[in-house]
Amino acid sequence: MLTSIMDLTIPHTPPRVVGHRGHLYRSLENTRHSIKLAAEHCHEVEIDVFLLKCGTLVVFHGGGNDQNPGCLKDYCNINGSILDLSYEEARNLKFNPYHLEFGCGPDVIEQLAHEYYIPTLKEVLLDAKETGVIIKIELKGPGTPEPVLELVEELDMVGQVHYSSFDHSRIKRIRELRPERNPDGSHRYKTGALFDEPPENFIQIALDAGASEVHLKYSTCTTERVKMIHDAGMDSMIWMRGPVGMLHDVSNLFHDVGNEDERMYLAIMKTGVKAMCVNKPDVLAGLLTKQQAVNCI
Length: 297
Hints:
Blueprint: E1 16-20, H1 32-39, E2 44-51, E3 57-59, E4 63-65, E5 68-71, H2 73-76, H3 87-91, H4 106-111, H5 121-131, E6 134-139, H6 145-154, E7 161-165, H7 168-177, E8 190-195, H8 202-208, E9 213-217, H9 223-231, E10 235-239, H10 243-252, H11 262-269, E11 275-278, H12 281-295
Parallel strand pairs: 1-2, 1-11, 2-6, 6-7, 7-8, 8-9, 9-10, 10-11
Antiparallel strand pairs: 2-3, 4-5
Helix pairs in contact: 1-5
C-alpha cells in the first residue's frame, strides 16, 4: 500500500485508463458483460477480433501465439482454432471455467454462464455506442483490417474506435486505406503498433506502419522510450500481460510491487506514458482519484 501523500505525486498528466479485454478480474474476458463493466471505470477498452470463415467478425482472444492465434484447447476444452469455425459453431462454445487465464475465476463463470458467449464485433460496438467508451481493437487474426474498417464506418463510429496489432502490416493497411488527418494534423483513424520486446529501431518501425500510437509491454516501458515516442509525434500506451503472465512476472521478476497493485501502477505512471491497458482498471481508476485529491491539497 502507498504510505505517503508524496508517493501519489506524479509530474505528468494522468494516463487514460484502458481495460484489457474488458474487466477480466470481475467478469470473463472479451464478453459483452465484461466490456460493459470496464466501461464504468475506463476511458477505453481493448478487445481482440478475429474474422471467421463465414465472414463474421468476433471478439475473442484464445490461446496460441501471434503466428498461431485463436487456439481453443485451454479456453474451451476442444482442439482447433476459432478460425476453423462458423459463427454458429463459435456461439455454441462453452468456456473452460478452470482456465487460469480467466482471472475472474470459476465461480463467476459458472454463475454468469448465461451471459458468457463469444460475441460479434457488431454487438460489442453497439454496446459501446450506448456507453460512449472508446474501443481499441486488436486485429488479432488474418483478413481483419478491411471488414473491421467497413463495420466501424457503417456504424458511424470512426471517432470511437482505434486499431492495433503486433502484425504491423495490419495497421499499415488501415493507414493506407484511411490516411485522413484532423485539422490539428493528428490522424483521424487511430492505429497502435504493438511491441513485446521493442527493437532498437521500434520508433522507425511504428512510423513506417503509419502508427499514431506505440503500445509497449509494461515491463519495457521506460521514461526514455516514452519520450522517444512523444518526440516522434505519437502517443504512448502500455499493456499488461494476461493473469498467468502477470503472476509469473511478480513471482520471478519483481519483488517490490504486487500483481497490478498501486505501487506497480504508480511506477509505470512515472514514465509519463499516456495510457495504461490494465487488467484491474478499478484499481488504476481509484489510484488516479487519490492522485487528483492530493493535487487539490
